Amino acid sequence: AFKAAVLIQQWYRRYVARLEMRRRCTWRIFQSIEYACEQDQIKLHNFFSYLMDQFTPSSSKERDFISRMFISGESYKEAELEKCCDYESIEVPDSYTGPRLSFPLLPDHATALLEAFQQKQQLHARYVLNLLHETRKHLKQLPNISHVSTCYSEEVTVCGAPWGNLSLLTSTCSLLLQNGLPSPSKSYVFNGDFVDRGKQSLEILIILFAFLLIYPKEVHLNRGNHEDHIVNLRYGFTKEVMQKYKVHGKKILRMFQNVFCWLPLATLIDQKVLIIHGGISDTTDLNMLEKIQRDKFISVLRMKKKKESSRKPEIQAINGESKSDTEAAGNEAAPRLSLQPQSAQAPSTANRLEFSRWLRQTVQDQIDTCRRLVDISESEPEELTYSSMVSLKDVDEPCWTYQEEWKQILDILWSDPMPQEGCRENKVRGGGCYFGPDVTEKFLEKYSLQFLIRSHECKQEGYEFCHNRKVLTIFSASNYYEIGSNRGAYVKLGPDLIPHFVQYQANKTAHMLTMTQRQGIPVARISRVEESAFRALREKLFAHTSALISAFKAYDGDNTGRITLSNWATAVESVLRLGLPWRMLRPQLVRSTEDGMLEYKSWLDDLAMEQRSREHIQSSLLEVIYRNRSNLETIFRIIDRDHSGLISFEEFQQTWKLFSSHMNIELTDDGIDDLVRSIDFNKDGNIDFNEFLEAFRLVKQCP
Amino acid sequence: IVAEIEKKITEAFEVFDRESNKTVDVREIGCIIRSLGCFPNEAEVQELLAQVNMEVEEQGGFIHLEQFLPVMTKVLLERRFWPIPEDVILHAFEALDENKCGYITKEDLVKHLTEE
């Protein structure tokens, strides 16, 4: 009998081990696909750089078209914004049954909102704008770095965004019920990335801002990399708002854009613990961060080089060469100022000399204006209009270049820790850097801090220490990739600044998050997550069909149509570069093999059949679409300035032409025609690109 | 074939390699060995670990891929700890099922498994 027990034990252990392996492999798949997705951002950058640097527009139409892509997200003057946010004039019909807000907000309003959202009701546009207006007012007076003291609040709870695939009400209620409502003795810090995940980003923000206004001293928000205009375009927030608010969507989006850039950049607890969304770099400078005008940076991802000057006399960034011109003028302050529309007309052609001269002049004007202001009034920086952006203090201090400030914010929002020492560019994300334990050590020492808390990366257990427990990653959205994929966690700090963790994993069937101890994970959950991961992986494989065929053929010298499984694994990795354990994954991806060899052609055909394909479209074209779909979607959205979801047929064609010339793809005009014909035109020459993307199943959001 | 085996081992190892520095926590070794298809019991895992550790002194709770690879390769080549066929497991269950009723209760199972 003893022997029997041992046998069973062995068998069982093996079973558990396999489960664990499966779990980790699945995790790896999701992570690598997510990062590859973010890598698309780089490709997008490259595309724009290509357009700027190498593409010579062959007609003025093309030039117009391209420059439209580059006219920056406008920064808004106060007056314009007031007009935008003119919620008073919006009528709320009597038939509206949703919550009605009045300011100042009370906890009852929050409850009303939560209940309404649970019932899938929508907050009326008027109240949304009103809320955003008040939020903006509140955020404007906050410093770049919020300070929290455990003397006042005994306990600080830090969360990453606690929302993933779940219902908003479930998550929020659970968090607050388990941990308690914000109060003078219980502060909350929400560490960024409130949007772009799931279909309820709007509701999440509304609730979050509501809490911010109801408990202004106890709730703190940090900006994350998703509180960013360009990122919203790609990941779905823009779309969500436009879909839910057809009439006032544009206004609402603009307000959000503005509110995002007023979000504080970091939070400091007791001067000892720094909370930022992404991470740090070896050049992170807290003093600079405190003084930057954070609202200048509506999007940290905007293209930074601009050779074509925009029609609008605003400067978002300075081209390398003209920067040196302005330096010659001895004015480092130049690039930081935004210019009033009436002060000068920007030259309409990119005549660099004229341009920099004009620049210097207008900059000088600005400096003079500021100097005058300093003489006149010593205080009330609030009185300064939005357009004269240099604060009084800074005129006397060394001014940093726009580029330097921009880098500070980019690093804070996008960086990731790495185990190796040093600091290098974060090519995976396309922004920020990878920072090593030595960078952390130096930084903490420099500012007498104990440790850093950040989010930005999904962790299986909801939290993870690294760099000798000096960096803590906290990730609060359980089931981030898929139901069952990971736990969420939040951390509580008391005056001793020792972190206490609470982990949870939302259970689909229960209405409350269940706090669990470390438990074995039910098999069913693993399979579901696994399935999802493998589906995504198969799609990726399909998207690289032609590259894979070439790679396989390289191993199939005799042209037998078969290769060994070992070569299969090597080939797949060389094409996809996802760093996945292909040999472990093989049984799930390759169904039938004979004597260790794979018939690759039929395998690829099987993959293709899974994806809904359009037979009359060139298959290579289909592949291209799949491979670049998130970029295509982003580009479409940028072109679609009024967020209507429609772009004209010409714009569509031009986009394709530009894109394909950049990607060096052979694209016949017939090919494009076929493509277009397969889409239903609804309105006289306009293409609903949502339909287009739907038709090719391209609307799936990247996790 | 050895190369293929080594690649497999490396892959499995890397899945557990949190910091991408070719080391895994010693507690995960059991998992890795088992997911490669082997059926060692705890004692056998310890034995294996001792072999791996013999090459270097204090590893401090971490196993390096370089030490693990040759030992594990041998294990796979020799087909040590190979999976037990199903009917044997069935017998094992039957042996524990004293009353021959076709099932064992959870308590019984726990009792037997923890008696070791």
From TrEMBL, chain A:
EC class (word): hydrolase
CDD domains: EFh
Known cofactor(s): Mn(2+)
Tagged with keyword Zinc: no
Catalytically driven reaction(s): O-phospho-L-threonyl-[protein] + H2O = L-threonyl-[protein] + phosphate; O-phospho-L-seryl-[protein] + H2O = L-seryl-[protein] + phosphate
Gene symbol of the encoding locus: Ppef2
Superkingdom field: Eukaryota
Family: Belongs to the PPP phosphatase family.
Residues making up the signal peptide according to the UniProt record: none
Keywords (A to Z) from UniProt: Calcium, Hydrolase, Manganese, Metal-binding, Repeat
Organism ancestry: Eukaryota, Metazoa, Chordata, Craniata, Vertebrata
GO BP terms: detection of stimulus involved in sensory perception; negative regulation of MAPK cascade
EC number(s) stated in the UniProt entry for this protein: 3.1.3.16
Protein name, UniProt field: Serine/threonine-protein phosphatase
TrEMBL record, chain B:
Start and end residues of each EF-hand domain: 4-39, 84-116
A molecular function GO annotation: calcium ion binding
Keywords per UniProt: Repeat
Alphabetical list of PROSITE patterns matching this protein: EF_HAND_2
Alphabetized SMART domains for the sequence: EFh
InterPro entries per the UniProt record, alphabetical: EF-hand-dom_pair, EF_hand_dom
Signal peptide: none
Keyword Membrane: no
GO CC annotation: sperm principal piece
Protein name as annotated: DRC8 protein
